[in-house]
């Protein structure tokens, strides 16, 4: 990424975030949750009861061969039961909902539709200018809690917050949207379809058909009635099996009792109730951005799917090679991401310029190490001194090896020489 920045190949104005699942070296049968353990233990208990009955019959018949065979089968099932009980204990101690035997950090994740696979979820951020990765992070969770983290990391890498970030509907979450908006980043996440349980009998009476009045803190229904709240904040358990609560206010009106269109609005006998959570203002702001920037948002897929198509379809990397946990999986993905970025740089730049840039970067690192070792003992450099040192070394080597083609400074006016580099002005970029 730093080499791409030196050649001004990172736009830093529009980025897109997305994730892809990569299969772990752990089969489904070696992944367990509490329900699966309970089913296996119940199956073993039934088998043991059957074996005990057969053992009683063999004793009555005084058939020693059958007794030995059944006793061995009982021992096998008892060992299996002990193994499942041990997995159950480990699951309780870890506090996780599932555990994997071969690769302990991998989890059963949904790939698409109803297809599940034991895998890792690779979060990535791609710059729109040349479809280059600027960041990645390997996780074993879904996308719902990733948008804030990845946006914060992108803000740190780019060194600014004045960029637009695009995410798909898998990232649409009230807490995450609030985090991103509070960072001051212009982020947009696609709005998912309204769940069937939240839909009104008539689509015209869905929540989107109720007008919010910020001045009076009320809602107006399609029939013109005003829904008010007592102002009390209630706790509501977060759906989707996640822990925690969300604060919300309830809006309703007594006019529902005599309304002629009540059957189109709600099935509840008590009338329609609108729940407005603490995250609703941020969600509404996100929706306004999506509606106002439809053409811009359409670019998301073309930005972020380009790297995935190359790595998975063209190169065949659908899986993680190691099975040593999250750290090793992250190293595997890091090699894939680095290989992709280097390949893109070679295609974008002249191969000779790219080669000399690599040499310059290598010598730059060597000089930095030499300067660190040559520093007198007991002398420490403050942060401005380190920044000046890095800037000077960067200028020196890119002037030396790239000469008039140096895109870091937009081209040097004089030929590169050792002496001229030492006195050259520091670049602004």
Q: How would you sum up this structure in a few lines?
A:
By secondary structure, the protein is of the alpha+beta class. The protein has 13 helices and 14 strands. α2 runs antiparallel to α3, α4 runs parallel beside α5 and α11 runs antiparallel to α12.
Characterise the protein shown here:
This protein has 429 residues and is α+β, with helices and mostly antiparallel strands. 46% of the residues lie in helices and 17% in strands. It is built from 13 helices and 14 strands. It has helices spanning 2-6, 34-61, 64-94, 147-158, 174-183, 262-265, 280-292, 294-297, 299-314, 326-348, 351-374, 383-402, 418-423; strands at 14-23, 31-33, 98-100, 107-112, 115-127, 132-139, 164-167, 186-189, 211-213, 218-220, 226-227, 234-237, 245-251, 274-277. Strands 1, 4, 5, 6, 7 and 8 form a 6-stranded mixed sheet that branches. A hairpin with a 4-residue loop joins strand 9 and strand 10 (218-220). Helix 11 packs antiparallel against helix 12. The protein is flat and about 85 Å long. The two termini are 14 Å apart.
Mean pLDDT: 84
Beta-strand residue fraction: 15-25%
Task: Give the % helix.
Answer: 40-55%
Low-confidence stretches: 400-429
What characteristics describe this protein?
single chain, 429 residues, alpha+beta, six-stranded mixed β-sheet, three-stranded antiparallel β-sheet, disordered C terminus
């Amino acid at each position: 990424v730093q080499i791409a920045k030196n050649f001004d190949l990172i736009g830093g104005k529009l980025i897109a975030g997305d994730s892809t699942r990569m299969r772990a070296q752990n089969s489904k049968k070696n992944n367990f949750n509490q329900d699966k353990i309970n089913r296996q233990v119940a199956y073993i208990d039934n088998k043991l009861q059957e074996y005990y009955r057969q053992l009683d019959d063999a004793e009555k018949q005084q058939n020693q061969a059958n007794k030995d065979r059944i006793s061995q089968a009982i021992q096998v099932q008892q060992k299996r039961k002990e193994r499942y009980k041990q997995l159950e204990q480990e699951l309780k101690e870890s506090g996780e909902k599932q555990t994997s035997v071969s690769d302990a950090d991998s989890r059963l994740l949904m790939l698409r539709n109803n297809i599940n696979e034991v895998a890792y979820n690779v979060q990535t951020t791609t710059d729109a200018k040349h479809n280059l990765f600027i960041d990645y992070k390997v996780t074993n969770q879904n996308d719902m809690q990733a948008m804030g983290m990845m946006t914060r990391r992108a803000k740190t890498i780019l060194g600014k917050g004045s960029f637009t970030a695009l995410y798909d509907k898998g990232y649409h979450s009230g807490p995450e949207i609030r985090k991103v908006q509070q960072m001051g980043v212009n982020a947009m996440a696609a709005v998912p379809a309204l769940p069937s349980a939240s839909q009104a009998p008539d689509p015209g009476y869905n929540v989107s058909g109720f007008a919010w009045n910020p001045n009076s803190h009320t809602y107006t229904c399609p029939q013109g009635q005003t829904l008010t709240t007592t102002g009390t904040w209630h706790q509501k358990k977060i759906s989707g099996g996640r822990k925690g609560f969300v604060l919300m206010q309830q809006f309703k009106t007594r006019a529902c009792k005599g309304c002629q269109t009540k059957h189109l609005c709600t099935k509840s006998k008590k009338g329609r109730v609108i729940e407005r959570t603490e995250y609703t203002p941020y969600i509404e702001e996100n929706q306004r951005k999506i509606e106002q920037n439809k053409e811009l948002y359409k670019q998301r897929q073309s930005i972020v799917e380009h790297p995935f198509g190359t790595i998975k379809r063209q190169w065949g990397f659908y899986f993680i090679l190691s099975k040593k946990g999250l750290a090793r999986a992250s190293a595997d993905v890091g090699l894939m991401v680095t290989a992709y970025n280097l390949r893109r740089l070679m295609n974008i730049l002249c191969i000779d310029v790219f080669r000399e840039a690599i040499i310059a970067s290598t010598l730059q690192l060597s000089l930095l190490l030499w300067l660190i070792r040559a520093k007198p003992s007991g002398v420490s450099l403050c942060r401005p001194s380190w920044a000046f040192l890095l800037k000077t070394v960067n200028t020196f080597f890119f002037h030396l090896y790239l000469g008039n083609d140096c895109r870091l400074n937009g081209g040097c006016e004089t030929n590169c020489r050792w002496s001229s580099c030492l006195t050259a002005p520091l670049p602004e970029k």
